[in-house]
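Subject: Re: docking follow-up (guanosine-5'-triphosphate)

Dear J.,

Thanks for your patience while I sorted out the input files. As discussed at Tuesday's group meeting, I've set up the holo structure prediction with guanosine-5'-triphosphate included as the bound ligand rather than trying to dock it afterwards. The sequence and the ligand SMILES I used are pasted below, so you can double-check that they match what you have on your end before we go further.
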Amino acid sequence: MDDGTIAAISTPIGEGGIGIVRLTGPDAIDIAAGLFRSTRATSLRAVPTHTLHYGRIAVEDRTIDEVLVSVMRAPRTYTREDVVEINCHGGVVATRAVLDAVLAGGARLAERGEFTKRAFLNGRLSLDQAKAVLDVVQARTVLGLEAAVDRLGGRFSTALEEVRGGLAEILADLEVEIDYPDLDVEIEAVLPRIDALSQRVDVILAQSEQGRIIREGLTISIVGRPNVGKSTLLNALLAEDRAIVTPIPGTTRDTVEEEASLGGIPVRFVDTAGLRETIDPVEAEGVARTERAIDRSDLVLCLVDRSEPLTEEDRALLGRDWGVPAILVVNKTDLPNRLEDVSLDAQIERADVSAMEGEGIEELQEAILQRLVGGELPTRNSVLLLDAWERDLIRRAAESLRRAGETARAGHSPDMIAEDLRIAYRTAGELQGIDVSESILDAVFAKFCVGK
Ligand SMILES: Nc1nc2c(ncn2[C@@H]2O[C@H](COP(=O)(O)OP(=O)(O)OP(=O)(O)O)[C@@H](O)[C@H]2O)c(=O)[nH]1
Ligand SMILES: [Mg+2]
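The structure tokens for the complex came back this morning:
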């Protein structure tokens, strides 16, 4: 590992209240001290740890910015190295100039996630926790944030530790049986223990599936012929005046997307251009985009207007196979019903709303959740945020445990039972970050932004 001193701007690029240049490494304090000027006599090199100092950053006699500098000495820091944070006035130019001065002073520009990577390599964070840091930063809903904070607190590693510990105990008993068959260890007694662990891992797997939804979110498209009220419905679902609404058919030309939290799940609602045959090239492109939006949706809201009889276009939509769950939304309940008595029910679920008046919107939201997560709303305790690699390993561990249970039930030898248990044990170890390869580490930290 390159353990020189690194620096980066840790706040978002742009104008803000403050901009922070962060340094970590053996020369962090030295470099900052060389640039720091204050009316006090003490140098930053001599100040106590975890203290804040007011002054200026200057190169030779040219002042770059007025700053507050915090000095934190190893090991009680994020990276376990010496850390200095220079709080600048928020402008882009000033913050960049301070960073340039720090780099000229001997620091190297940090790579993505390098601060957190050092925290991991120096034993301050487990790999699991380092990943949780990323989830905290990228949380899209309050629930996502809570789940990430729980992971940071060690919820996943504790669960893994229990599983791995349980496996080690069973394996130890089986080894005795293998080595000393005469001792006659009760194989039957091992089976319920394997089953209990197997169930435990299945729960982790189910929780990670809910976690996947929380992390990645869901996409819902609102489709229908022109003028049925799609944009009005988008605005009602978002409780915000997001899309343009007019009485003119063909108002929405491009897809309009906005994210909202639905029961803690980040949901991206896509309002689309009304589906119809058209010769207008702009509208035609809009219709093509609608089709692409449908393709990447987890659910489709298929809208009709009840104040007019169904048109051919409506019927075509209603007869369509969406390939994903769909809900028929009958809009404009505030107007008289002119839909002839067609069997709208078919197989498709129905919700009646007045998007304009906000009537029936809550019921629609419930119907959506019912379709997407079976009404089982994810809660803080029911979600585990894992990435695809981790979910895959958990799936494999679950599979090995199931096989071990079957082998034991079939009365096979302790040797054969132990084989599958060993696989599960190794998999759990891999998940705990024991023996992770450099390439996996790089992949993890490359997802971070520079300065984190
Ligand atoms: N009375 C009543 N009018 C509605 C309702 N929802 C939408 N409208 C009206 O219907 C017209 C069309 O609404 P939009 O939301 O623009 O319809 P759209 O489906 O997005 O139309 P395009 O973008 O052209 O495809 C507007 O005049 C809305 O005010 C409703 O629930 N009740
Ligand atoms: Mg519209």
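A couple of observations from a first look. Residues 224, 226-232, 245-247, 249-252, 274, 331-332, 334-335, 354-356 surround guanosine-5'-triphosphate (ligand 1) (CB under 6 Å). The chain has three domains: 6-126, 137-213+387-432, 219-373.

Let me know if you'd like me to rerun anything.

Best regards,
T.
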